[in-house]
């Protein structure tokens, strides 16, 4: 079925069933592999993207529900103010190890900062608890979010 | 595309950032067809050995014999080479080495393997010499051009200088001349006091492309005409495929083909969604085989029975029988469950098989074994197998196995296009090679408040007997007893035995922390129980037996101070300690934890002090300990794979739980300055968490847990030891 979505400000048309999750459209049809497959059941957050600025799990998001919505992925989040701040803080705090979950972590953090510019620990827990990091970078994720919020980045 | 091209086209883009040098991976797989190919500057390139390539522009490419799976080794290995080469760090780029045991075998294993936290330990001397040799050749080239003595020239940041005449030449300008120099026979390496890169918290080379989705893992491979396959392995270990009815599956839009293997079925589709739906629509009858009734209880009954036998003696000093007959006697058995790896990147491999070749795109810890096993499965010679290495989205030992590549080759053999075989998380959890179950028995006696006799019997799977058979000698798996024979304490009468006990039907493999996983847990749990029996503070008790181990004692003393050991705590809050000398690093850790009324655990604080010798990158050391602690604490809190009807019962992160950010305590890691040879760091933190937490629970509640994961029912308010 022909579908049109707005992804990273561009219109993308492709043929896919309406129940197909956005994750697989991004990865296997559009070749945008920055968004990751981790669990397929919205338990790990590796597939997080923004829909109208809110963090959602693309592995369980049927494309039939997001026509006319603005979808943003990790490839483009750096062009948003909060996304750019988060990416910079992530490198400054040297958060990343294997990096596989970090697309999703950054998307969740960017959505948090866009909605809550100065999050406290409880805000961070609430926004980030859906993102699993098997390398265990949580301490630095917390630090990087605070760094990004503070504007103290070098 | 062949491996050499794909490697040489994989370039790093340099650019400045205020926080440091930004180097980015740029991999070619989906480059636009008209993108200019980076010229392979064989002509004029200085290639003194398998690790260093300097072209006429001074571009310095370092080949990575170890793989990057998050542990930071690409940056640390580069720093070691670049240090002795006196390279300009801002011009350093890295490339994955192709499979080649002759050039890139890990010096410890004789195979191109990344594991056992030994990348820096194994390569420290060879890579320093490789860098220093190249530097000497560049100096010779410059000296000969200037007609001066080599000894009058110096190297720094990618340039050779002759101070007396003020002349300078860059490495790029010297590349051609350096290539024809005779390498010096026995080159001197730097005095550590002259290090400029080693010991600095250099920014990682691999992370800039990990914040913007550009970094490519094996699962991100995209090839022209490629299709995607989802796979179902026989749910019962050792079972086979019986009958498959694919009529419903083939009707699903996007499903292209159903491939039936001996023990698995794959559905190939235009995308993963079609493949996955196709797989769900299959009707598969499995021949479940002889293991179809096995349960966790059967496995434990068997292990307990086998572990009662005498084992092969791995080490014995003093007179253990006599010493055990005196003093205050202690006996305990510690039991650890099966664990899955659950790397965030699910298992995958992309393969294209032709009549006489096989090409693979994946992220693996065992490049050459993948190549040779793929050759067997594809029916081609090893030299016809190309392996394109990728970044690994976590390894943790799972990618020390070639099974996923072999299965993908078997699928790809059935079609004339490349196939990416992706395991769903459910397949990943249910068809792992599991951290074995262990039963560790410790018998000891106390005399005058000290351990006078220590008898430790390890019972569990001999992973090495399968994985590296020549390493399994005299009935002893040297991995399973690694940190049992290498105990940090001074015990006059000391005895370690090993009983090989393969769990019924369940395949076992290396899991981050490897053998010391079980040893550190058993030793440190027993030490706390012995301290209580002796009526002593756990740290005080340990100190008395560490007098001959100054590095261990020093980190223990520091962690006591930094963790506020001995300071008063509220009710049902406790501190627990763990010391361990694993992987040639010395680590002391204190966990502070609270137990609520229903027995749930709240981690309050973790403090670690680590002496890893020379810390090549102290920030990486810190990060590895932080992450390792969380990996280990996750296992202690939640980790258990159970078996029923021959099948793994867990399937995804809802029932194989991971620690999350809201459960993560404050973690403070201190890296001690040291001039000793570097130790391993990628796994040590994993082993520190569980015993330190368990000992904190003992301090808080008086309950001495002897199994993992932690059983909350034993810890509810009012329960007594």
UniProtKB/TrEMBL annotation, chain A:
All residue ranges annotated as the 2Fe-2S ferredoxin-type domain in the record: 1-77
Family annotation (InterPro entries): 2Fe-2S-bd (IPR002888), 2Fe-2S-bd_dom_sf (IPR036884), 2Fe-2S_ferredoxin-like_sf (IPR036010), 2Fe-2S_ferredoxin-type (IPR001041), 2Fe2S_fd_BS (IPR006058), Beta-grasp_dom_sf (IPR012675), Diverse_Oxidoreductases (IPR051452)
PROSITE patterns: 2FE2S_FER_1 (PS00197), 2FE2S_FER_2 (PS51085)
Gene3D superfamilies documented for this protein: 3.10.20.30, [2Fe-2S]-binding domain (1.10.150.120)
One term of GO molecular function: oxidoreductase activity
Pfam families, per database record: Fer2 (PF00111), Fer2_2 (PF01799)
Highest taxon of source: Bacteria
Keyword line: 2Fe-2S, Iron, Iron-sulfur, Metal-binding, Oxidoreductase
Keyword Ribosomal protein: no
tRNA processing found in the keyword field: no
Listed name of the protein: (2Fe-2S)-binding protein
Source organism (scientific name): Bradyrhizobium zhengyangense
Top-level taxonomy: Bacteria, Pseudomonadati, Pseudomonadota, Alphaproteobacteria, Hyphomicrobiales
Automatic annotation (TrEMBL), chain B:
One matching Pfam family: MoCoBD_1
MF (Gene Ontology): oxidoreductase activity
Ranges of residues in domain Aldehyde oxidase/xanthine dehydrogenase a/b hammerhead: 212-290
Protein name, as recorded: Molybdopterin-dependent oxidoreductase
Protein source organism: Bradyrhizobium zhengyangense
């Amino acid at each position: 079925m022909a579908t049109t979505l707005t992804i990273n400000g561009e219109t993308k048309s492709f043929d896919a069933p309406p129940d197909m999750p956005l994750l697989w459209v991004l990865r296997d049809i559009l070749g945008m592999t920055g968004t990751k497959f981790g669990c397929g059941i919205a338990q790990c957050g590796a597939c997080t993207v923004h829909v109208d600025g809110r963090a959602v799990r693309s592995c369980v998001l049927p494309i039939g529900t997001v026509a006319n919505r603005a979808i943003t992925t990790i490839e483009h989040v750096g062009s948003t103010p909060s996304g750019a701040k988060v990416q910079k803080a992530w490198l400054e705090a040297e958060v990343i190890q294997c990096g596989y979950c970090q697309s999703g972590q950054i998307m969740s953090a960017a959505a948090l900062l866009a909605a809550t510019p100065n999050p406290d620990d409880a805000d961070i827990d609430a926004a980030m608890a859906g993102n699993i990091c098997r390398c265990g970078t949580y301490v630095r994720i917390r630090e990087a979010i605070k760094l990004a919020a503070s504007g103290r980045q070098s | 595309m062949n491996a050499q091209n794909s490697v040489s086209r994989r370039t790093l883009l340099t650019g400045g950032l205020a926080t440091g040098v930004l180097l980015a991976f740029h991999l070619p797989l989906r480059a636009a067809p008209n993108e200019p190919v980076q010229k392979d500057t064989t002509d004029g390139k200085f290639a003194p050995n398998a690790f260093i390539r300097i072209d006429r522009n001074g571009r310095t490419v370092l080949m990575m014999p170890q793989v990057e799976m998050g542990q930071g080794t690409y940056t640390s290995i580069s720093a070691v080479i670049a240090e002795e080469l006196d390279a300009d760090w801002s011009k350093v780029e890295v490339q994955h080495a192709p499979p080649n045991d002759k050039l890139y075998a890990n010096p410890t294993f004789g195979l191109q393997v990344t594991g056992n936290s030994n990348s820096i330990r194994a390569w420290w001397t060879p890579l320093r010499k490789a860098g220093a040799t190249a530097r000497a050749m560049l100096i010779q080239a410059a000296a000969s051009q200037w007609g001066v003595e080599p000894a009058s020239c110096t190297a720094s940041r990618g340039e050779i200088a002759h101070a007396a005449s003020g002349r300078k030449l860059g490495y790029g300008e010297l590349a051609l001349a350096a290539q024809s120099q005779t390498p010096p026979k026995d080159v001197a390496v730097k005095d550590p006091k002259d290090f400029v890169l080693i010991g600095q918290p250099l920014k990682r080379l691999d992370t800039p492309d990990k914040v913007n989705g550009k970094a490519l893992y094996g699962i991100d491979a995209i090839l022209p005409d490629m299709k995607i396959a989802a796979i179902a392995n026989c749910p019962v270990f050792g079972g086979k495929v019986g009958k498959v009815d694919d009529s419903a599956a083939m009707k699903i839009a996007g499903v292209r083909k159903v491939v039936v293997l001996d023990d698995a079925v794959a559905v190939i589709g235009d995308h993963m969604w079609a493949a996955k739906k196709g797989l769900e629509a299959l009707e598969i009858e499995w021949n479940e085989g002889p293991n179809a009734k096995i349960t966790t209880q059967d496995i434990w009954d068997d292990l307990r029975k086998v572990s009662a036998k005498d084992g092969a003696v791995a080490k014995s000093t003093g007179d253990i029988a006599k010493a055990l007959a005196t003093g205050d006697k202690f006996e305990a058995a510690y039991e650890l469950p099966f664990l899955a790896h659950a790397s965030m990147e699910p298992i995958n491999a992309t393969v294209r098989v032709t009549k006489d070749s096989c090409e693979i795109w994946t992220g693996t810890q065992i490049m050459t074994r993948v190549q040779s096993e793929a050759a067997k499965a594809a029916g081609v010679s090893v030299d016809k197998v190309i392996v394109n290495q990728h970044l690994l989205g976590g390894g943790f030992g799972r990618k020390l196995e070639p099974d996923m590549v072999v299965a993908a080759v078997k699928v790809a053999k059935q079609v004339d296009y490349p196939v990416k075989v992706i395991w769903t998380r459910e397949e990943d959890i249910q068809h792992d090679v599991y951290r074995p179950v262990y039963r560790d028995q410790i018998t000891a006696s106390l005399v005058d408040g000290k351990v006078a006799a220590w008898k430790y019997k390890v019972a569990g799977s001999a992973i090495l007997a399968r994985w590296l058979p020549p390493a399994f000698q005299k009935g002893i798996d040297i991995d399973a007893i690694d940190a049992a024979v290498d105990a940090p304490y001074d015990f006059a009468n000391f005895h370690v035995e090993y009983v090989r006990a393969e769990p019924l039907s369940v395949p076992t493999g290396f899991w981050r922390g490897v053998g010391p996983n079980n040893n550190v847990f058993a030793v440190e749990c027993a030490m706390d129980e012995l301290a209580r029996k002796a009526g002593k503070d756990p740290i005080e008790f340990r100190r008395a037996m560490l007098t001959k181990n100054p590095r261990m004692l020093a980190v223990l003393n520091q962690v006591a101070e930094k963790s506020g050991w001995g300071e008063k705590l509220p009710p049902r809050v406790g501190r627990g300690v763990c010391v361990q000398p694993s992987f040639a690093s010395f680590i002391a850790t204190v966990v502070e934890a609270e137990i609520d009324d229903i027995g749930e655990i709240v981690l309050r604080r973790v403090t670690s002090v680590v002496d890893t010798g020379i810390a090549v990158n102290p920030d990486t050391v810190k990060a590895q300990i932080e992450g390792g602690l969380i990996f280990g604490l996750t296992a202690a809190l939640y980790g258990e794979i159970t078996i029923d009807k021959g099948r793994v019962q867990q399937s995804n992160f809802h029932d194989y739980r991971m620690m999350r950010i809201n459960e993560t305590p404050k973690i403070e890691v201190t890296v001690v300055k040291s001039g000793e040879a570097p130790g391993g760091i990628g796994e040590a933190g994993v082993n520190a968490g569980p015993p330190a937490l368990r000992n904190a629970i003992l301090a808080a509640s008086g309950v001495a847990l002897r199994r993992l994961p932690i059983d909350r029912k034993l810890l509810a308010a009012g329960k007594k030891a």
